[in-house]
Amino acid sequence: MNPAPSQRHYGMDWLRVGAFVMLIFYHVGFSFTPWGYQTPTRGVVWWAEIPLLGLSAWRLALLFAISGYASAALFSRERDAGSFLRSRLLRLGIPLLFGLTVIVPPQPYMGLLNSGYAHGYAYFLFHDAFSFRRVIHEDLPAIMHLWFVIYLLAYTVALCVAVMVLPASWRAALARGSEKLLSGPWLLPFGCVAIYAVRAPGDGWTDTHSLLTDLCAHLHYGGMFLFGYLLRNSEPLRAAIARQWKWALVVGLAGYAFVALEAWYFPGNVRTPRAWMEPLDFAKAVQCWGTVIALFGIADRFWNRDARWRGMLAEAVFPVFIAHQTVMVLVSYWLRDKGLTALPEFLVLCAVVAGGSWLFYLVGREVGPLRPLIGLKRAKPVKRAKASVVPPTVA
After folding, report:
1. Which of 142, 312, 371, 379 has the fewest CB within 10 Å, making it most exposed?
2. How far apart (Å, rounded) are the C-alpha atoms in residues 220 and 251?
3. How far, rounded to the nearest angstrom, does the alpha carbon of residue 224 sit from its chain's CA centroid?
4. DSSP 8-state secondary structure symbol assigned to residue 338
5. Neighbours of 367 (CB within 10 A)
6. Residue ranges for the chain with pLDDT beneath 50
7. In 3D, which of 90, 93, 89, 121 has the Cα closest to residue 105?
8. What is the pLDDT of residue 202?
9. How far apart are CA 97 and CA 153, in angstroms?
């Protein structure tokens, strides 16, 4: 796969941008499914869950794998676990605190208003938002979509501790063993079985978003994070993906076909028969792993090239992620009395959420003190000259 590990892989940038764009459509579409959400809509669209299930099994696994890949690139620049950990704590921790205290609180507040909460936002903010108790149906303080950042920080800390504690020979042996296992014909079957093994017990594919209790999710997402970390520095693994991504795409689509079939026969809140549960869990594992491997292969084969907007889009991903769900909740409540049917409301929500989140990034990047709060470097980067430039050396 190209380029070599010392160069930036533009395909990973495009893959990351695409994954977060799909996240906006996923969260907006979620409001129209029977699964439930804190935002009111024009009603449930019975078939809306079928296209969303095409993303549900693998979207977060992909994001954690990409995060692991990027972490390996950043770590190679730092060359020291302590320095790397400090940089990641600042880069992720500051926007996390800002998001939890400023960006997220409007979401539970709007949900409480919909349940009869009688107080204004100022009262909520100073009396209830950070009270560490349950108010009506909301457990406060809320973390909402920022659970992803919390988990990513936890995996980063665990990785750095492992690097600091484990002898170099042990780490090298673990890397060689993992590389040998995954770079051959076992790449697809081992990944499918491993994800099924960690997801089938307990609540299976239902994440709790609680750092201390979400064991199945940690095994899954933490494993994907480590897979991405390994991939960055493994030529045999990259070559294996280049050889097998087409088969992986077939495998992923086959898994989704069964998932969609189950949703067609047992839509919404209709209980899935016990006989379907084990095959359904396995189909989701197959869909997840096959799709992730296929997307990595596609990103390398077709998307590994720079473009004018790539740098800005890659930079905007984290700020847009921080803002998008709060923008969606606020706009959803504003739309609920406008008399729109489901399709117009969906289109308006997609456009406004994308535009509002992009505006959040555009404003934040121009204000120096705001930049670290929304996940950007403190200083604005110097604009790249139009003449040919040596590609950056990290992903």
Report:
1. 379
2. 19
3. 11
4. S
5. 10
6. 1-4, 385-395
7. 121
8. 65
9. 12
